[in-house]
Write a structure and sequence with these properties.
single chain; 161 residues; Four Helix Bundle (Hemerythrin (Met), subunit A); 3-stranded mixed β-sheet; two-stranded antiparallel ribbon; 7 helices; 5 strands
């Protein structure tokens, strides 16, 4: 699991090395005027939120920072991705997920590994959107599996030929 997550984070780093800061932070019509950087920020913050709540065992994804510097400065995003890659490998433990819906705060029991899988899946969803935004640039090379779920990659390999 950790190897898959780190590979996923490295694919984001690889893409960052190909994007100018202007391409990273520019609004994109295909992304409903969001930028590639906004999707990076979201990915970075959901993983970061999980790591920040790990010791206490309480995570609230709604309370993430929404740090606009991450979405406008690709160097900061790169630093955050490197930090995540270094910190992500931790032992499994029980974690409570706190979320407010319709004015009511809920606590749901989960664990670190389950939340990592959720974050990986969520990240891949945002990477698929990033792939749409990157399509307008001719100079970008993406791995064909960028933004594709591991189960889909496995299915394709099993049915190739």
């Amino acid at each position: 699991m950790f190897d898959t997550i780190k590979h996923n984070l490295h694919s984001l780093v690889d893409l960052l090395h190909q994007l100018s800061n202007q391409q990273y932070s520019k609004s994109c019509t295909a992304l409903s005027d969001a930028s590639i950087g906004k999707h990076y920020r979201h990915i970075i913050e959901i993983f970061g939120c999980l790591l920040e709540g790990y010791d206490e065992g309480l995570v609230n994804y709604d309370h993430r920072a929404r740090n606009q510097t991450i979405e406008t400065n690709s160097r900061i995003a790169l630093q955050k991705l490197e930090w995540l890659t270094e910190e992500i490998e931790r032992p499994n433990k029980n974690i409570s997920i706190e979320q407010t819906l319709a004015g009511q705060t809920l606590l749901v029991e989960s664990n670190y590994y389950r939340e990592l899988l959720f974050n990986l899946d969520h990240s891949i969803h945002h990477q698929a959107l990033i792939k749409v935004g990157v399509a307008e640039y001719d100079n970008i090379l993406l791995d064909e599996d960028f933004g594709v779920a591991p189960s889909t990659i496995s299915y394709r390999k099993q049915n190739a030929g």
